[in-house]
Amino acid sequence: MKKRRLSQIGSFFALSLGSIFQAKWLCLPILHCHSCPIASFSCPIGVLGHYLSIGVFPFFLIGTMLLFGALLGRAMCGWVCPFGLLQELLHRIPSPKLELWPPLRFGKYLSLFLLVLAAPVLLGTESFLYFCRLCPAAAIEASLPYAYMQGGFTDFWGPFLRFSILGAVLLASVFVLRFFCRTLCPVGAITAILNSISAFSLRHDADACPQCGECARACPVGVDLQEESRSVMYKAPADCILCLECTKACPTSDGLKGSFAGNFRRTDLSGSYKQ
Fold first, then answer.
1. Domain definitions of the chain by residue range
2. Residue 204 β-bridge partners
3. Tens of each residue's pLDDT in the chain, 275 residues
4. What separation in angstroms does the CA of 232 have from each of 107, 208, 213, 225, 238?
């Protein structure tokens, strides 16, 4: 946890060097609004929506996302994303803690399809149904700074809708850990799909698992590896953010570990395992 927290805090500052360094041509697979005046990099959702709205296929963006996905899967959600860090900190506020209703985790795929892919194509990026017009991260990183620089908001309904969503998400995060990441984040939907091809992943051996449930209790996104795996699993589940909190909580050394694909044990045709 200490290493991950240091990584998250360091990443927050690295992503906020826009006043002295900018590489807006590069999209990192995290939710970080590039309209923020101090943002160092671009948000893949904003770039994707822009290109779709003008009828251009974003080859470089897709290639970048595939590259990050092939190497790291959703690891940047767990180690880099500043909005994820904010939700984790809010969850530490003393309050009743609730379990997420499982069907809600499919909401992030609807968010990706309807608000990120369909809305800019059919309605344009100025529509209030376009994701960036509703994005709670953008409310903090773009709307607030520009309102301060301009001496107030230039209109009412846009900021009202965006900040209402932000307030609801932050409140929900107090009770449900990483609520937005698990239910609405379109970046999470993209990287969840890429978890299946990620070189960096988890190895869960059900035969060596003590069935203690410590991994599920430690997981910030509610993944239960005992339900996901029946023998040996070499890839992380779609919702896993590869934070490795589960590997620290696991009482065994062979049951659960994080590793790159080259370090995984492979299975031969007879079903036995070999190094």
1. 2-193, 200-260
2. 233, 256
3. 688 999 999 998 999 888 888 888 899 999 988 888 888 999 999 999 999 999 999 999 999 999 998 899 899 999 999 999 999 999 999 999 999 998 999 999 999 999 999 999 999 999 989 999 999 999 998 888 777 777 777 776 778 888 999 999 999 999 999 999 999 999 999 999 888 888 888 887 777 888 888 888 889 888 887 766 656 666 778 889 999 898 888 888 677 888 776 444 443 323 333 33
4. 29, 9, 17, 11, 16
- The CA angle 197-185-114, to the nearest 5 degrees, is 95
**How many other C-beta atoms can be found within 10 angstroms of the C-beta atom of residue 110?**
13
Rounded CA-CA distance 235/198 in Å is 8
- Is residue 82 within 8 Å of residue 11, measured between CB atoms? yes
Entry pTM: 0.86
Token readout for 228 is: 């996901």
Token pair 């992503």 is found at 15
Q: For residue 102, how many other CB atoms are within 10 A of its CB?
A: 9
CATH topology of domain 200-260: Alpha-Beta Plaits (3.30.70)
Query: How many CB atoms sit inside 10 A of residue 196's CB?
Result: 13
Q: How far apart are CA 39 and CA 263, in angstroms?
A: 36
User: For residue 215, how far is the Cα from the chain centroid?
Assistant: 19
Edge-to-edge strand ranges of the sheet holding 256-260: 232-233, 200-205, 256-260
